Amino acid sequence: MFDWISGFIDAVGAFGIGLLMFLENVFPPIPSELIMPLGGFNAAAGREHLFWVVLAGSLGSLAGAVFWYWIGRRLGTRRLKRLAARHGRWLTILPEDLDRSNDWFTRHGGSAVLIGRMIPTVRTFISVPAGVARMPMASFLAFSAVGTVSWTTLLAMAGYLLQAQYGLVAGWLDPVSTVVVAGIVGLYLWRVATYGRRKRRKAAGG
């Protein structure tokens, strides 16, 4: 995965960074922890300007956040519950899980969006309860922008500052990224396999 992302960024530049960050928010197994440091490394090597790297990454990430926000807003709680009731095994959620998620989001609101945008995997799905709760778009974008720009800047600066050492780091980043992706897939399969047990436990009041 490291070699593929590196080659794509080298070929397409800042636009490629924005596109990959958008896809990372739509499809979490593409890790921003590889995309943005590689963009920063390219900036240190003089192939891109650091400002454009951060801007492209942030805009792509925000576009992905808005994508999920509008899905949550269009579907709403009732439709999501019907989807969870019909396809809960493959979505790995129970209708009751949505109630807990909505309650948690109601309590934390903006801070949940801001902090969630800096946590792997969570940053993708935190937009859905924001949309379901019909959080004002201006507020959603403001909190998302602060968290997103902070995260992309941190990662890009890490790649920029590593510079010559980045080749050494790449040697262990590739297997680590593969392990992360495998972990996400494994967690999903585990939740699919244990869905019935969780459903029975919830029905029994556990």
From TrEMBL:
Residues 30-160 form the VTT domain. The lineage of its organism: Bacteria, Pseudomonadati, Pseudomonadota, Alphaproteobacteria, Rhodobacterales. This is DedA family protein. The chain crosses the membrane at residues 7-30, 50-71, 140-162, 168-190. Keywords: Cell membrane, Membrane, Transmembrane, Transmembrane helix. InterPro entries: DedA_domain, VTT_dom. Its main location: membrane. It is found in: Cell membrane. It is a multi-pass membrane protein. It comes from Salipiger mangrovisoli.
